[in-house]
């Protein structure tokens, strides 16, 4: 059988297959935990335990699958969680819960005939302690991006990127609650609409989406709107994550008519990449420095779908600095037609605020 041309042309074929498998498996564990939260009453309390369990469990599964699928590769991961809290007195019950969830997810999937001990689980979590940086290869993982959305039963994402010599070369976003069909054609949706999207992109090969459960991949591209008055905005659902007054000032300058689409997590990047909206703005509060795992996977999916992702000065995001982006001024994602106008409105609004 001859190799497909795009497979031959993609130097990261094995990594992409492993990353997709890892994210899909982690998403399955997260879905199970989220259903449990929604069935109990926990989302009204300050109890973060279920989220913790899903965060850690997701990180363990991603780590496990990458090591199993890419055994010959040197392994380095920059991830959000470490096992410090799980090693404390009183954390045994949570650790047991995570271990049994991970083992049930592996058993149900059937790909690997194995069972992890609590020590294996702690070791897998600590596999994410790498600092990343400009040389070598590093996986970048946010095991659950959008914690508050996860608790509410809303959008969240399992976000995995690959950094190679300081550049993001691959990204996979598992969005269990995002409809597979574009959300802007969704008039309330119907029960037949498939929910659960897996977005992925490799540098130079474009971006695609398929069902989280697996389906024929579809090429995606950002919208081609060139007039800001026709554009719609994505912003964070949580007011604490972004300066909404500044966002609305920018929207006003651009003449944007549509109300903002508020969504948790990097699901926004996926939705933007397939044209569900035109502009995503993230303007963090003063002093907040963005982490690499909040943007690595999403940004390459948008750029490979023909979009642009810039900081407030109009520069590309730099993922080679370690665990943090060297940025506290904001991030803009949109198409190439709108970027100049959005960037100018952004900079004008920032100047006025100061």
UniProtKB/TrEMBL annotation:
Family of the protein in this entry: Belongs to the inositol monophosphatase superfamily.
PANTHER family associated with the record: OS12G0183200 PROTEIN (PTHR43200:SF7), PHOSPHATASE (PTHR43200)
Binding site for Mg(2+): 80, 142, 144-145, 294
High-level lineage: Eukaryota, Viridiplantae, Streptophyta, Embryophyta, Tracheophyta
Protein name, entry field: 3'(2'),5'-bisphosphate nucleotidase
Annotated catalysed reactions: adenosine 3',5'-bisphosphate + H2O = AMP + phosphate; 3'-phosphoadenylyl sulfate + H2O = adenosine 5'-phosphosulfate + phosphate; adenosine 2',5'-bisphosphate + H2O = AMP + phosphate
Cofactor(s) in the UniProt record: Mg(2+)
Keyword check for Hydrolase: yes
């Amino acid at each position: 059988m001859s190799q497909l041309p795009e497979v031959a042309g993609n130097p990261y074929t094995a990594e992409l297959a492993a990353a997709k498998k890892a994210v899909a498996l982690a998403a399955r564990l997260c879905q199970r935990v989220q259903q449990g939260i929604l069935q109990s009453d926990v989302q009204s309390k300050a109890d973060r335990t279920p989220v913790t369990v899903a965060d850690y469990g997701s990180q363990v599964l991603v780590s496990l699958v990458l090591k199993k699928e890419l055994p010959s590769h040197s392994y380095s991961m920059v991830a959000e969680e470490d096992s410090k809290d799980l090693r404390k007195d009183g954390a045994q019950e949570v650790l047991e819960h995570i271990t049994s969830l991970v083992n049930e997810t592996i058993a149900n999937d059937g790909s690997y005939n194995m069972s992890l001990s609590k020590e294996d689980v702690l070791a897998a979590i600590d596999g994410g302690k790498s600092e990343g940086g400009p040389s070598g290869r590093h996986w970048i993982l946010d095991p659950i991006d959008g914690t508050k959305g996860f608790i509410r039963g809303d959008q969240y994402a399992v976000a995995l990127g690959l950094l190679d010599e300081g550049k993001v070369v691959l990204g996979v976003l598992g969005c269990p609650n995002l409809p597979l069909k574009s959300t802007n054609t969704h008039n309330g949706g119907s029960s037949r609409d498939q929910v659960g999207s897996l977005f992925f992109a490799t540098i130079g090969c474009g971006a695609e989406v398929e069902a989280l459960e697996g389906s024929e991949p579809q090429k995606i591209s950002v919208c081609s709107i060139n007039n800001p008055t026709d554009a719609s905005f994505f912003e964070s659902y949580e007011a604490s994550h972004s300066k909404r007054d500044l966002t609305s000032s920018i929207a006003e300058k651009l003449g944007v008519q549509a109300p903002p689409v508020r969504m948790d997590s990097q699901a926004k990047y996926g939705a933007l990449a397939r044209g569900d909206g035109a502009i995503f703005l993230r303007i963090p509060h003063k002093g907040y420095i963005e982490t690499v795992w909040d943007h690595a996977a999403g940004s390459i999916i948008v750029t490979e779908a023909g979009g642009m992702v810039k900081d407030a000065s109009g520069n590309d995001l730099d993922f080679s600095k370690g665990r943090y982006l060297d940025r506290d001024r904001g991030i803009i994602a949109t198409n190439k037609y709108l970027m100049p106008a959005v960037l100018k409105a952004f900079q004008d609004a920032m100047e006025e605020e100061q």
